Amino acid sequence: MVTTEPALVVRELRKSYGDVRAVDGLDLEVRTGECFGLLGPNGAGKTTTIEICEGLLERDSGDLEILGMTWEDHGDDLRDRLGIQLQDTQLSEKLTVTETLQLFRSFYKAGREVGDIIRLVQLEEKARSRVGALSGGQKQRLAIACALVGNPELLFLDEPTTGLDPQSRRQLWTLIEEFRSTGRTILFTTHYMDEAEKLCDRVAIVDHGHIIALGTPHELIDSIGATIPAPPPRASSATLEDVFVALTGRTLRDE
Amino acid sequence: MNERRFAERSLVQLTLVRFREFIRQPEAVFWTFVFPILLAVGLGLAFRSRSPDKPKIGIVASPGSRAVVASLERDSSIVLEQLSDSAAAKALRTGKIALLVLPDSDGKVRYMYDSDRSESANARLVADRAIQVGAGRTDPVSVSEVKVTEKGSRYIDFVIPGLLGMNLMGSGVWGIGFAIVDSRSKRLLKRFMATPMSRSEYLLSFLFSRLFFLILEVVTLLGFGALAFGVPLRGSFLELAAICLLSALAFSALGLLIASRAKTVEGVSGLMNLVMMPMWIFSGVFFSSSNFPAVVQPVIKLLPLTAVNDALRANMLEGSQITALGLEMAVIVGWLVISFVAALKLFRWR
Predict the structure, then answer these.
(1) CA geometry: angle at A109 spanning A108 and A113, to 5°?
(2) Under DSSP, is residue B255 helix (H, G, I), strand (E, B) or coil?
(3) What is the pTM for the complete model shown?
(4) In this complex, how many residue pairs, one in chain A and one in chain B, have their CB atoms less than 8 Å apart?
(5) pLDDT tens sequence across B199-254
(6) Closest residue to B187, CB basis, from A55, A88, A105
């Protein structure tokens, strides 16, 4: 059930690194129970935005309310209720999957059984393996497991499927759908439009530090459908990928 | 709320992680436990106590030198070698012999030697005594000798406390500094910051695991020294434990300070070597720090490792009480407090 009460409200968020305005007056509202996708080219400000929401970065200005709370007044409470996966974390290679999850579980007041989480992310066979011996997809599933073990109300995933093979991607999609089906909220970033189209209730396209388009995948596709230049003959309708490229241009972006 | 099982508490889990990461790193185990023992064995064998070498003396025999040769041969504390003229010059030049004796045909004797070499000066005294006694000299004063070997004055006795001090420094600085910077460079520290993990528990876990390994390190090295070489432990064990504990804490704080900002493992390795290298040289690990000029002595005395080594030696070799080690203990505690306060001020969690 998607309700209208927001899980996350961001108003006029700004963050600069020196001369670079990474986030430049960004507004965002994520409703409780929805799966929300933050799309955008490299360097658009997605990661900065999500890390400010996670309480990992200080913002320069703007208002931020997560689950009705603020970082300033409820930091400890929020950390206990959020689940987070970062883009570039390397978990300790010397620990096993179970040990890693036991460690993360110990940080939270009330979390889920480590064994249940391992089953959920289908790592039963690797439960006793060292993290260093896992494949990329397995490591990523473990990272998601670490985000889920605290039984969070709101899940932040930053490019969870980047670099994964199609099987691992689909496995992660299932995880995300299952989480959403329990009525909880997900905010994630991705470069894959098919993924956003399949999973997200709503998406926002970010560029140059603010949101340039917002809506359900279908709304966005409808809005742009007519303006696509010369659709290829086989495509009967536009995809979210067309919307993305039409809005953000075809120039390559570097990190 | 507090019904959580002991093993599920985050402090316990964090400390377990420290243990697991350490013992699953064979290199770390080797450098912490095996290497100091190997070093002690090597140094103990190389510098074991033995009678000084007998001086090697060369002689160029001539027809009138029979009496001199006989006198020298009679003295068992000399190794005598009869050489030709040219071989003798070469042997002296290359240090194969310490002294060259040149008897003249008229009964006089000339000594050729380098008076700056202590073994040559010694060889001259020994050879001269043998020749003079052989020729009939009698000493006016009669002497008798009592020979002693004192445990505690050998090189191994000096070096074992030094190795212990060096080990306390190495595992404190490396153990803490490396693990923290490694976690920071892998963004693991940042990931932890996004959980409700208590920061003080994170730091405490390093301390607890450090203290556990400290006991192992001290017991292995001192136990080995005492059993294999009979290195004395004359002071109070309790006070020795207190010195080790405070030293380990001081070096851990130093490790924390060094690691407080560094972002890469390479960067922190350089910093750690920069901090530890002078102490390996100046703080009296392998040789006494009193060898350095008097001008720099005050600075050397303020280095933490100097204080640790001096305190360990005073306790173990002289049996000194901790109350007599005011300066050393003050230096150790001073480094502990200053490093820890500075580390907490500077520490970056991301």
Answers:
(1) 70
(2) helix
(3) 0.80
(4) 74
(5) 999 999 998 998 899 999 999 999 999 998 889 999 999 999 999 999 999 999 99
(6) A88
